Amino acid sequence: MRGLAALAVALFHFNISLMPHGYLAVDFFFALSGFVLWRSYQPRWREGLGTRAFLARRLIRLYPLYALGLLLGAGYEVWRVVSGSRTGLDLETIALSLPFNALFMPSPFTIPLFPMNVPAWSLFFEVVANIALILVLFRLPLWLIAAIAIACGAGLAPIVLARDAANVGAIWGETGIGLLRTGFSFGLGLVLGGLSQRSHRPRGAVGMLCLGAIVFALYGIGFEPRGWYDLFVILLISPLLLFVGTRFEPSRLFAPLAAFAGDVSYALYAVHWPFIEPYRALGRHIGLDGVPMAAIFLGSMLALAWLVARFFDEPLRTLATSALRTRAATARSLARA
């Protein structure tokens, strides 16, 4: 499910006509993140996992690929300046924005929060949600988290209807809306994670239907008005697919491909943005457009995502996790001494 959502976002950014509602994958990401984090970390928090240790683990997971996407985006923007392009960022804006973005903070010098890798806005809100989780949400009963999520959804609904779309949150002036999107989906994911007790997940038709339903919902062609459709997916379809999908697996034949898509999903999301314009230019140069060029772009991005996940992200996370464990063991030894 995560892999299909990442593909939908990349395709939406590359060619919106082929995945017109792909931005709704972000809401699904938030919901899935809440579900996974509750299941993974709430038991450890009850056993004494501290704020610093939790945030360190989350930064180890999120930051390496985020930083790589930022560096690739900055490199592409510098190349555009050097090549004489008049449509990109200037060197002063790049230099001023880079330190803020490197600290996982929005740039105060541009309209987009993360001008060199625009999709990173959702990763910023993911970090905000993670901080809220360890400081506040783990301490609240599920019914209160559900109430907060419902309140965020109620606040989001009239905004989406007024704008006739939920594709908001990436620029200054939309940060409040971004928080509402995050609060609803992430909060509901926490609740579903807290209510989920099943560990055995049977394979078969239901799992495959969930995967197909995700693609259908994010494509959403022909459904009007757009704002009502977006709300329908965010408030109902996305949570329903999360609820059902996390209780089943795809068929055994499809499982290796599904595992691959899940493994590269974050890398795909984090690094695809700087390659969009070069691949569009390539398509114009060789006379390809539409589905064929989109297939070349997605295939290339999947290969790149596998490479950076396998040879960049995994080794760095392994080293950082090992160092974190060594530091924790040393601290325990000193405390006993």
Write the layout of secondary structure elements.
Layout: H1 2-14, H2 25-46, H3 51-82, H4 91-102, H5 120-135, H6 142-163, H7 175-195, H8 205-219, H9 226-245, H10 255-271, H11 276-286, H12 290-336
Report on this model:
There is one protein chain. With 337 residues, the chain is mainly α. 74% of the residues lie in helices and 0% in strands. The chain has 12 helices and no strands. The chain has helices spanning 2-14, 25-46, 51-82, 91-102, 120-135, 142-163, 175-195, 205-219, 226-245, 255-271, 276-286, 290-336. It is globular.
Keywords:
74% helix; mainly alpha; 337 residues
CA-based gyration radius: 20 Å
Large-scale geometry: globular
The largest β sheet comes out as: none
Number of domains: 1
Summed up, the helix count is 12
Structural class: mainly alpha
Short description:
The chain is mainly alpha-helical and 337 residues long.
